[in-house]
Every structure is written in structure tokens, then in C-alpha cells.
Specification:
13 helices; about 10% strand
Length: about 375
């Protein structure tokens, strides 16, 4: 028992139907022990816990974030055990190592957790993940709707039907589609099915958006969602997506950490006295990064408090409105300066989005202090 008197670091390689297990005693140089694979049922997890606890040492579990989600983390923490979920992209690996198995992955996780070389990720609460799932369902539904509209437009163009107005699916556009007659019955069926698909996907998107708004109102982070809408280009969809994906922004110590987490900071390759910067790293959360870059494009116009922004700001405290105005002045000027220097619009949007994230962090911190 003295051999295992200190902490045991338990690496778990989690899959749908099996979990490879290995543990490493705290003493450096001690061999990592592989326990093989177990099932994913609750009884299998309980049996593993009892087996490891019989060694009389504190346990620290670790596994990679992946498609299996956070159920294992939540189950272990409910048992009072210490568990970490780590980012797969930040796990150190030897360049020449070309062998990958579940057993080797579990052993590697246990060894790296013992040496402190793993980076834990933020695990959202259950209610936070529920809002995030609803937000992602809305985003996915929007993508499917765009694809369905594109297929319908391509079909009409291929058969010589071209709508002269704006195809924005308003009443006039729908009346035009109702008058379309295809050359053959088969093509008419295809056309009607395409129209029906667009209609169904539009209704699905509307249901999800309504449900997202309803579920967001009692959410503990909804005051931050409202506060972020004081910013230009940050309406409800952008605000709810950002907070649903990132959680509480005040968990970041400073804006630079948030920018890095979003993957909006430039990549760098420097050696000696030579410094070379590349495109943004695109690390971290891609959903939040996408909506922020889209919101940043609103700053291509001059700074102005429009009626829509004024309506969103009227119930917000003065400090938050002040931050939003400083953001407008700063980011609108930043956009014009970069454009005058000949920068590509996508590069400008990424640069403005990086600074927009910093203003979001400031608003979240101010809102938290005012509560």
C-alpha cells in the first residue's frame, strides 16, 4: 500500500462502447499501468472506481474532449472525484510516433496528467449546454435552409426561370413561384418538392428561434446577453450564440485570453531576430468566432446610434452604453484605417472582431459588477 500512498492519475480513452484505462502513480519514473478496456455502463464505471480506491490513494481522472460529451465528467464529479477534460489539439505528441491505439492513448493521458502537461477545458453546466444545443440546432437549421433555397434557385435557373426581383421569399416572390410551370410532370414534382422543403425548413427555423428566445429569458446568463446587444452588429442571435458557446466571459482573466480562445489572434513563426506573423490561429470555438466576424462587418459604416441600437440600449445602465459607444468610435475608425491601407475585407473583419471580443469582455465584467 505504501507504493500507492500518493495520488493516482487515471487516463481514460473514451469511446462509444468502451473505455481504455491506465493509471500513473504520483512518483516520477514509476511505470504507468494499463488496466485494459471496460464498458461504458454505470456499473462498469463504479467497478473501476472501487478497484482504484482500494489502493488507498486520491484519484485524478482525465480524458479527451470528444463526441461522447461530458456525461463521464459529470458522473465522476457527482461521486466527489477529481476529473479533468482536456483539449485533444493541445496534447503533446512525439513527431516520430506513428502508432496510435486506445491503450497507448490512455497511458499517454495518465503520464501527461502526472507531469502537468495537459490543458483542461471549460465544461459548461447542464443548463448552459442545453441553451448551446438549442443555439447550434438553430445554426444547423439555417444552413440546411440555405442549401434548400440554393437547390431550388439552381433548378429554376437551369430551366430558364429567372425572378427579376429580389429572391427574398416575400409575398411577391412566393406568388411568382406559385405560377411556375415545368415542361414535364416529373420536373414539376421535383420543383414542388423543393418548394415544400424550403417551406418546411423555414417553419423549423422559426420554431427553433422562438424556442431559443423563450428558453433564454430565464437563463442565468441572459442579463449578459441583453447587455451585449448594446454593441453595434450584436443583435440577439449573435449575443446568444456567443454566450452559449463561451459561457461566462468573466472566467477569462483579461481580453487577450478571450481573443486567444476564439482563435482571433495572429499565428506566429519567429526565429532569432526574424519575426513572421500569419493568419489567425482559428483555434478554440468556431461557432462564436464566425458570428463575431459577421458582427464586425457592421462597423464598416460611420459611428452612429441607430433606432434599433437605441431600442436595445434603453433599459441598460449608463456604463454599458458608454462602453458600446466607445466600441463604435474605436472599431469604425479601425475599419476605415485598415481599408485605406488596402487590407482585404476578410482580414479587416477578423481584426475588428478581435477587438469586438475585448469590448464584450468589458461589458460582461461591468454587468457582473453592477449586479
Amino acid at each position: 500500500m505504501e507504493e500507492f500512498s500518493k495520488t493516482l492519475y487515471v487516463g481514460l480513452d473514451v469511446h462509444k462502447e468502451s473505455i481504455a484505462v491506465a493509471y500513473a502513480p504520483e512518483e516520477r519514473g514509476t511505470e504507468v499501468v494499463s488496466l485494459g478496456a471496460i464498458g461504458t455502463r454505470q456499473c462498469d464505471i463504479d467497478k473501476l472506481i472501487r478497484k482504484l480506491q482500494s489502493k488507498g490513494a486520491p484519484l485524478v481522472f482525465v480524458y479527451e474532449a470528444g463526441p461522447c460529451g461530458y456525461w463521464l465528467y459529470r458522473y465522476l464529479t457527482r461521486q466527489g472525484l477529481n476529473c479533468h477534460v482536456v483539449a485533444p489539439s493541445l496534447i503533446p505528441r512525439k513527431p516520430g510516433d506513428r502508432v496510435k491505439t486506445d491503450r497507448r492513448d490512455a497511458v499517454l493521458l495518465a503520464r501527461l496528467m502526472r507531469s502537468g502537461d495537459l490543458t483542461s477545458i471549460y465544461v459548461p453546466r447542464v443548463e448552459d449546454e442545453a441553451v448551446r444545443d438549442l443555439s447550434r440546432a438553430r445554426e444547423a437549421s439555417l444552413g440546411v435552409l440555405k442549401d434548400a433555397k440554393l437547390r431550388l434557385k439552381s433548378f429554376l435557373l437551369r430551366h430558364g426561370h429567372h425572378y427579376s426581383g429580389r429572391a427574398n421569399w416575400n409575398a411577391a416572390h412566393l406568388r411568382y413561384l406559385a405560377k411556375v410551370v415545368c415542361p414535364t410532370p416529373a420536373q414539376q414534382i421535383v420543383f414542388q418538392e423543393y418548394v415544400r422543403t424550403v417551406t418546411e425548413r423555414t417553419e423549423l427555423l422559426q420554431r427553433l428561434e422562438a424556442e431559443l428566445l423563450e428558453q433564454a429569458k430565464p437563463w442565468r446568463l441572459y442579463p449578459v446577453v441583453e447587455a451585449l446587444q448594446a454593441l453595434r452588429g450584436v443583435q440577439f442571435t449573435v449575443a446568444i450564440t456567443t454566450i452559449a458557446e463561451l459561457g461566462d466571459l468573466t472566467r477569462f482573466d483579461n481580453p487577450r485570453q478571450l481573443m486567444s480562445y476564439l482563435g482571433l489572434t495572429p499565428s506566429e513563426y519567429s526565429s532569432g531576430d526574424r519575426r513572421r506573423l500569419g493568419g489567425i490561429t482559428k483555434a478554440g470555438n468556431g461557432h462564436a468566432r464566425r458570428v463575431l466576424i459577421e458582427a464586425a462587418k457592421a462597423y464598416r459604416h460611420r459611428a452612429k446610434i441607430s433606432e434599433q441600437i437605441q431600442a436595445r440600449q434603453q433599459h441598460l445602465p449608463a456604463p454599458i452604453r458608454d462602453i458600446a459607444w466607445r466600441a463604435q468610435v474605436r472599431l469604425c475608425g479601425r475599419y476605415r484605417k485598415l481599408l485605406a491601407r488596402g487590407k482585404h475585407p476578410n482580414t479587416i473583419a477578423a481584426a475588428v472582431a478581435r477587438e469586438l471580443a475585448a469590448f464584450m469582455w468589458a461589458i460582461a465584467r461591468t454587468q457582473a459588477v453592477s449586479v
